[in-house]
Specification:
Its EC number is 2.7.11.1. One of its GO terms (molecular function) is ribonucleoprotein complex binding. The chain has helices at about 70-90, 125-130, 140-155, 205-215, 230-245, 250, 255-270, 280-290, 300-305, 320-325, 335-340, 345-355, 385-395, 410-415, and strands at about 10-15, 15-25, 30-40, 45-50, 100-105, 110-120, 160, 170-175, 180, 190, 330, 365, 380, 400, 405, 405-410. With about 425 residues, the protein is of the alpha+beta class. Strands 1-2-3-4-6-5 form a six-stranded antiparallel β-sheet, with helices on one face. A four-stranded antiparallel β-sheet has the order 12-13-11-16. Strands 7-10 form a two-stranded antiparallel sheet. Helix 3 (about 140-155) runs antiparallel to helix 5 (about 230-245), helix 5 (about 230-245) packs antiparallel against helix 8 and helix 7 (about 255-270) runs antiparallel to helix 8 (about 280-290).
Length: about 425
């Protein structure tokens, strides 16, 4: 832990339980996030603590009337603001869950306010890094777009604007098998915007950009930022997922301001983009509907969910199943056709695989199809994604019956329905 935030021992007491601080997950200007696990209960799922840390006090003259409040007050305000938003938005599957709040009395700079949150997995930002400029699969883009739009439709209905939607703030939930929105530090109730500088460079809507410029000049903007700013940000995120490119400099260029539609067309027509197929043009039109410079013409989250893009069935690529954890593990290159045909050998191998897989957690079910689709593949369902992730890490590359094992995850929802994807390339 940097600076021994939690004292000499990396432990903290929250909600009547003792938690071990395992690793830092990230930090911002006013808060840091840590991975934690409940002590004394190894089966309890890990969590995340977001600590709003006041900086050390600086000696100096008394604050002038009208001056900015001290950083300690900003940390307290940020905590109260995010807590209020998460409490009012609690219960939606595509919004990070707030478990509770507490005060850490052992912080280096005095008591600090903390949020105890569900721990999520890989972010869209990390997925983009792994895409190697090739772009994400249509399955992943569709999955992310639908999940985030569902979250936005809900929070906009509640009167909230997220105001900082970007790849780092969209994370995968391995347990619920969906993407979730995090970080409501800049969020506000529509019509009651309490901060001038919203959104992040590269994902900032034109009206927010104008507002920021005017605020820097000490002027008031006549245009109010609405929930439409979130749709703009999501449009940029989806365009980056499709192209595999960071578009910050593109969206800040004069060419974009003059004719963004032509640039979007060029990206979708590019030979370097793997996904240039007919269904991609439904995605192109969806993205264009989010990126109107006139916020009044921008699609709402509810309207965007009606796009024909969401009616197209896509299958995940094998890279998707390696990157996105679920409670189900899929083992490849384990069984030969001969093993499947000999019942006695099949049963022995089945027992060996079950015994090996149970080293990483209780196995809920195990399936080895003898016919296509899925012939010879091994599907192992664990009680939780944590066990599945541990097994995937240890079993990948292991030699079984003279063959190197390939271990990926598999959608729990598809597995439960008995649906085995035939094409995962």
């Amino acid at each position: 832990m940097s600076g021994c935030v939690w004292g000499a021992a990396p432990l903290l007491e929250a909600l009547g339980r003792l938690w071990e601080v395992q690793a830092p997950l990230g930090s911002g200007s006013s808060a840091s996030v840590y991975r934690v696990r409940c002590c004394g209960d190894p089966r309890a799922p890990p969590g995340a603590v977001k600590e709003f840390v006041p900086p050390p006090p600086r000696p100096g003259p008394a604050r002038r009337p009208g001056a900015r409040p001290p950083a300690a007050d900003c940390a307290e305000y940020g905590f109260r603001k995010e807590r209020a938003a998460l409490e009012q938005l609690r219960g939606h599957r595509n919004i990070v869950t707030l478990y509770g709040v507490f005060t850490n009395h052992y912080s280096a700079n005095g008591p600090s306010r903390c949020l105890l949150l569900e721990l999520l997995d890989i972010s869209v930002s990390e997925l983009l890094l792994h895409s190697s400029n090739q772009g994400c699969s249509m399955w992943m883009i569709q999955h992310c777009a639908r999940d985030v739009l569902e979250a936005l439709a809900f929070l906009h209905h509640k009167g909230y604007v997220h105001a900082d939607l970007k790849p780092r703030n969209i994370l995968w939930s391995a347990e619920e098998e969906c993407f979730k929105l995090i970080d409501f530090g800049l969020s506000f109730k529509e019509g009651n915007q309490d901060v001038k500088y919203i959104q992040t460079d590269g994902y900032r809507a034109p009206e927010a950009e104008l507002q920021n410029c005017l605020a820097q000049a000490g002027l008031q903007s006549e245009t109010e930022c609405t929930s439409a700013v979130d749709l703009w940000s999501l449009g940029i995120v989806l365009l980056e997922m499709f192209s595999g490119m960071k578009l910050k400099h593109t969206v800040q260029s004069q060419e974009w301001k003059t004719n963004s539609s032509a640039i979007i067309d060029r990206i979708f027509a590019s030979e370097g983009v793997v996904n240039s197929a007919i269904p991609a043009y439904h995605l192109r039109d969806l993205i264009k509907s989010m990126l109107h410079c006139d916020q009044g013409k921008r699609a709402s989250a509810e309207k965007a969910l009606c796009s024909p893009f969401f009616s197209i069935p896509f299958a995940p690529h094998i890279e998707d199943l390696v990157m996105l954890p679920t409670p189900v593990l899929r083992l490849l290159n384990v069984l030969s056709d001969a093993s499947l045909q000999c019942e006695e050998e099949y049963e022995d191998i089945l027992e060996d695989i079950r015994e090996e897989c149970q080293k990483y957690g209780p196995v809920v079910s195990l399936l080895i199809p003898k016919e296509n689709p899925g012939k010879g593949q091994v599907f192992v369902e664990y009680a939780n994604a944590g066990d599945s992730k541990a097994a995937q890490k240890m079993l990948t590359g292991k030699i079984f019956d003279g063959k190197f094992v390939v271990a990926t995850f598999y959608p729990l929802s598809a597995y439960k329905r008995g649906y085995l994807y035939q094409n995962l390339l």
